Amino acid sequence: MEENQLEKLKQLAAFIEEQQFDVIALQEVNQSMEEAPLSPDDLGSYYSADSEIVIKRDNYAYVLNGLLSDAYHWTWAPAHIGFAKYDEGLAVLSRTPITDTVNEYASSLRDYDNYRSRKIVGIQTVVDGVPAWFVSGHYNWWNDEESFRGLWDRTTEILNPLAPTPVFMMGDFNNAAEVRGEGYDYVLQSGWLDTYSNAAVRDEGHTVIKAIAGWEGNAEPLRIDYVFSNQAVQVRSSAVVLNGKTGSVVSDHFGVAVELVL
Fold first, then answer.
1. What is the pTM of this model?
2. Which of 64, 76, 65 is nearest to 101 (CA)?
3. What span, in angstroms and rounded, lies between the C-alpha atoms of 23 and 36?
4. Mean pLDDT taken over the chain
5. How far apart are CA 118 and CA 169, in angstroms?
6. For the sheet containing 73-82, what is the strand order?
7. d(Cα 61, Cα 205) in Å, to the nearest integer?
8. 3-state DSSP assignment of residue 176
9. Distances (CA, A) of 137 to 104, 171, 236
């Protein structure tokens, strides 16, 4: 849905190569419903989270990975139809091989035609000799038809049994850290930790600075994109990236880059 999408994909790929991230979580990862499917031989380092998932030729994660000189291991799963023409889903990319995946609905709604059908998609991999889970999510608003609270309850129901393995829950939470008594506080009250708050070095953290889809009329900088952990870890830094200062702007949300020690 971005203007100059291919150019922005190239900019994102260049930034990934520059930074050499171990794991990348993406949300609103689309493919055209009418596009031709890829054959298994075309998929390379793709790790399927469900045998029924069909990857199309213009799948964002697939195209992005193809622009990298060193391809990542990756998975993708659709959650619902986006803008009446896309399979809209979530993706996770990893420099190290994927050993397992999670692909579950966080919403009670499971209507593929309804954008409020929400999933979490994650991978298990080994980073610096430590097995860990990295999960991508895209959530509803606190007062939505199906509220964030219920989605987070379901998320913790899925992820808590993975402990004591470290689990990192990443993505667009649509709940601002600046608002008390709503989604951000609810995540912390459930026992999860914000890597931003625990970072030895951090910036202002704002990932949305204007009105965007879902935040129409917004005029304040907001922190709504997070990396939460299920246990205490050493966090060296948390920085907003892909904001025109550190990396090009490639989306209506900026990115979050976290450096931590497992």
1. 0.96
2. 76
3. 28
4. 95
5. 14
6. 23-32, 86-94, 73-82
7. 25
8. coil
9. 10, 5, 23
